[in-house]
Design a protein that fits this description.
Length: about 475
């Protein structure tokens, strides 16, 4: 993590952030299902409770308020019961609803989700998506004028519902006196955001808008740079779901790939809102792009564990980063590894060593590593770096980069330390560690275990651990299909 990144969660002055976009009322009707309707072949939802939450730019506003920002939210609602609830929810979130404009010719955008056992059964959308009429557009522009110059950052949250007309975008992205502008985009034509500083599309959106496939070896970089050229950006951030996020600056001199934190995913609703909220908050507080991305990735990891939209707090982000640091502390270079091993050995702990590529982790790996850990007190795992993996496995491997493989292994509780080696065999590393126990899979019985002579001559022992039948990286890739196997 960038040193001191969490500092940007606690500014001396709350940043002033303007949010403009489509505000949505998310209505959840929770219940249970146990029978089929006698009237039609559909399940019957026994309604139990209703929940109403802010969606669209309202969720961005709630997220920023939870982080501690001074938020102004300019949006449009109808003249209906939904509008009253939107204003109540904004006020409850700490956002002044006074900047929300009423358009009697449009309904308040409402998405009603029927939910049973944490699964959506149906969604009902009430909306009009054509651009605002001249009267409503003029009201938005008038509301924006005094606020723009007072803002540290502008966030544009576009859900394609008509609020962000060409004139509104022209003022926000290209008008005089504007601060940094971040856009969560919608649609295929991103030139309408020309003049903004940063875009945050997801993978599919980036591919469609840039016309570049992200599947190639340099696809994601090419797509990001294409977006920068198209929109005249400072940088393009592409969110990649479970794979984290990527960013490239317009000059091509800087790029960052931030892996996602390992989390159980229950619902990705609102994760994109969380990402742009934390990016905006951190950047407004002086963070560089990398630090802001790491904070945003940690926040998204918290949100996807919740059902429905959720406003993450600074303390939750800090806890998530703390967990990550504990995992990352296991990934060490050789010099640090030897110091750590020496300290563990001094304290009377038995050192176990194993090695491999560990490219695509599966259940067989986990059981193997757990068995190895049971043979001593400290389990050290040496992994082939990317170059040596290619020499051993061919040009299509590794599937996962050495940094990602190391981080995933470090996430296993049974693993104490992970380090990489560049040689074709781990002999030099084994001799340096001189483990009490050297472990390899039972399938190495007739191949000869590298380092066995050294370990046994120094009083250690070699153990051939069980290999879970039917599990291997090769078989996993075959099941994934030929296209994935080639990558």
């Amino acid at each position: 993590m960038t040193p001191g990144a969490t500092h940007y969660l606690h500014p001396e002055r709350p940043p002033r952030i303007l949010i403009v976009g489509d505000i949505i009322l998310d209505r959840y009707q929770h219940g249970s299902t146990s029978r089929i309707s006698p009237e039609a072949p559909i399940v019957v939802l026994a309604a139990a409770r209703e929940e109403r939450l802010l969606g669209g730019c309202g969720n961005v506003a709630a997220n920023l308020a939870a982080l501690g920002a001074d938020v102004r939210c300019v949006a449009v609602v109808g003249q209906d019961e939904g509008a009253a609830r939107v204003r109540e929810l904004l006020a409850e979130s700490g956002v002044n609803p006074g900047d929300v404009i009423t358009d009697p010719n449009r309904p308040t955008i409402t998405k009603t989700r029927l939910v049973a056992h944490n699964q959506q059964l149906l969604r009902i959308d009430e909306e009009r998506t054509e651009p605002l009429d001249e009267s409503a557009e003029r009201a938005v522009l008038e509301r924006l004028e005094p606020v723009i110059a007072e803002s540290d950052v502008i966030v544009i949250s576009d859900y394609g519902k008509g609020t962000l007309t060409d004139r509104v975008l022209d003022r926000l992205c290209r008008g005089e006196g504007r601060p940094r502008v971040l856009v969560d985009p919608k649609g295929k034509d991103y030139t309408r955001y020309r003049g903004a500083h940063m875009l945050t599309p997801n993978r599919m959106e980036a591919e469609v808008a840039s016309g570049v496939s992200l599947d190639g070896p340099d696809g994601i970089r090419e797509a990001a740079l294409a977006l920068c050229r198209m929109v005249d950006l400072e940088a393009a951030v592409i969110t990649l779901g479970a794979k984290g996020m990527y960013c490239a600056t317009a000059d091509g001199q800087h790029e960052w790939s931030i892996p996602a934190l390992a989390r159980s995913v229950y619902d990705v609703t609102g994760a994109g809102d969380t990402v742009i909220s934390v990016l905006a908050f951190a950047l407004a507080n002086g963070a560089d792009i990398e630090a802001a991305m790491r904070l945003a990735t940690a926040a998204a990891g918290v949100v996807v564990q919740r059902f429905g939209v959720y406003a993450v707090t600074p303390s939750e982000i800090e806890r998530a980063l703390s967990d990550t640091l504990q995992t990352n502390a296991k990934v060490v270079d050789r010099e640090e590894l030897l110091d750590r091993v020496a300290a563990e050995r001094h304290n009377g702990r038995k050192i176990v060593f194993t090695n491999g590529c560990f490219d695509v982790l599966h259940m067989g790996h986990l059981e193997y590593l757990q068995e190895a850990r049971g043979l001593g007190d400290v389990l050290v795992v040496g992994i082939n770096d990317d170059a040596s993996t290619r020499r051993l496995k061919g040009d299509t491997r590794p599937v996962n980069r050495q940094e990602d493989r190391a981080a995933l292994l470090a996430g296993f509780e049974c693993v104490s330390f992970v380090t990489t080696f560049s040689e074709d065999t781990p002999l030099d590393l084994i001799e340096a560690v001189s483990p009490d126990v050297l472990v390899k899979g039972a399938d190495w019985k007739d191949k000869g275990v590298v380092g066995s002579e050294w370990v046994e001559s120094h009083g250690g022992r070699v153990v051939l651990a069980r290999v879970k039948e039917g599990y291997s990286t090769t078989n996993t890739l075959k099941r994934a299909g030929p296209e994935e196997e080639r990558r």
